[in-house]
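Deliverable D4.2, example record:
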Amino acid sequence: MGSRLIRLASHLRKYLLFYVLLVIAIAIPLGYHYAWFFKAHVQQMKILILSLAVSTLYPSMVQLKGEEMGPGVKARVKETIIGAILIFIVAPFMAMLSATYISYRLVAIGFVASNAVPASSASIAYVMLAEGNVELATVLAIISIVGAVGIAPLYVGLYARSVSVSLPVSLLAESVAIALVLPLVLGQLTRYFLVKRRAKGLLRDERISFPCKKITNSKMKETTKCIEGKISANIRPYLSLATMVFMLLLISVLIANKAGLLIRKPTIAVDIIIAQFIVYAVIISLLLAISKAVRMKYEDHMGIIFIAMTKNESVAAAMAVMAIGPVAALPAALVPTIQPVIAIAYIAAAPFIASFLKRKAKSQTPVKCPALVSKTPYSACNDS
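Output generated by the structure prediction step:
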């Protein structure tokens, strides 16, 4: 059963874009045909969308290594500041400018929300594929999550006011807290008991012998970290599978809920896609220019770009249905069709980017630790 789920997770990850487009293609006619159902169950749809949004976020929060926050910031202060500026200033500001070309006001507000939310669960995976600085990416992902609690409602509220739509910032903040803080707390608690506490238990287990049993405290920490990495690697496929399944369900519900509007005004989808491409183009161009000017390493550049570009649209969907309106969730449903395309294209362009930055891309070196002599599944340590 476990191997089947792992294969399914690998299959979904490989063909995720195809399945996103497939669920949209199915959801539009179904939502249009059963429009009466969605109109009759507005409150139930809100609860369902919020539940799916939290369920989509929770697995990625389990994988988030909050303990790496301090050391990561100290190691890359300049890069962290540059990444934070892109995440909290450039992306939302460009979204506000691009949103003016979206004719439907509530959809435009939802578009701003979709670019003010934190990084997606796939962001760090993209960094790893591009052989970027995973530690820097992790730090920026954590910063984006913490900062989004206050900054995302602020940007959405300011833009709503600029287009004469009254949205209480307190309600927006409440929606972000429920959709973001709740899964973050639950995810980190799960990580503590499922990964960190279990790793310490395996380290103390007398049945497991190490080649160098009497090692220093610093080596002991490295060994513990390796065991944690192995446990994380073992559960990662299941968490990724849960994230992708809940994301596909969330997108299908969001699209079906407003299928009538998409059929009557298909240009709304075109406006969202064009506006999102503008945001991406500015972020990529600006970071390339900055990276060149400050002689940033290729690995650090890749550690920043994916965190700045790819967003967790489940948070935007929760904000929309709780504080703005269901129609404002359309960008959150459509942006996931664009993010993988841009991310994969940027990874494919890695040799040209490395050449432009005059830095040779280096492969990530796996963390090594003493092999465990045991019959347990944790007989090798590699945080892959």
